[in-house]
Amino acid sequence: MTAEEEAERIERGRLLFAGPIDFELGVADMSQLPEATLNEVAFAGRSNVGKSSLINALTNRLKLARASTEPGRTRELNFFRMGDQLRIVDLPGYGYAKAPKSEIGRWTKLTRDYLRGRPTLKRVILLIDSRHGLKPDDKDVMDALDKSAVNYQLVLTKADKIKPTEADAIQRATEAAIAKRPAAHPVVIATSSETGLGIEALRAEIAALA
Ligand code: GDP
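That is the input. Now the predicted structure with guanosine-5'-diphosphate docked in place:
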């Protein structure tokens, strides 16, 4: 890509996220899904990975996704509409051990059904905490997405919490871990909702799917 093309991509991302973004609905059951009319990009990750903070940083709206202090609280699929361009789908966090078993079952089934059967879902942004790297739960999710041929992209969160040398190492390790995974997008983006690192690049990636 030329520098000019790259600048254009970044500008498209900036414009998309500067436009309207509204909460549309929370879905607790497959029968409530909005009609599949717009492309969708879904955000997934372990509870407390920094998903709400990242969505708020991307959209420049402080409280769009509630940054919950209570891990595992969000149980629904939350749909946000970006005008007539794209939907952002905030999926329930996974891997939170203290939630009642029956509830974990319900979230998992709803999320899995959505991920498997949504024709308009263009990519899952799978968030990984820079300090912890890929956990067994994350690998389970990647296995399921590979199996269903749902495109996904790994994004490292909270990059400000580790040293640059550690950040390089985790970036390389993460890229190596996806190299042979058929549904993984090859670009791994390191982000920080605190410093804004990687936010522009992620906006550009998402805008390319609108
Ligand atoms: P969620 O459960 O995945 O939605 O995670 P939250 O967005 O609620 O974040 C979990 C915790 O991590 C909160 O205490 C956030 O303030 C903190 N956090 C999230 N993103 C960042 C980041 O980029 N840098 C730092 N230093 N802290 C973060």
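Residues 45, 47-53, 67-68, 71, 93, 157-158, 160-161, 192-194 surround guanosine-5'-diphosphate (CB under 6 Å).
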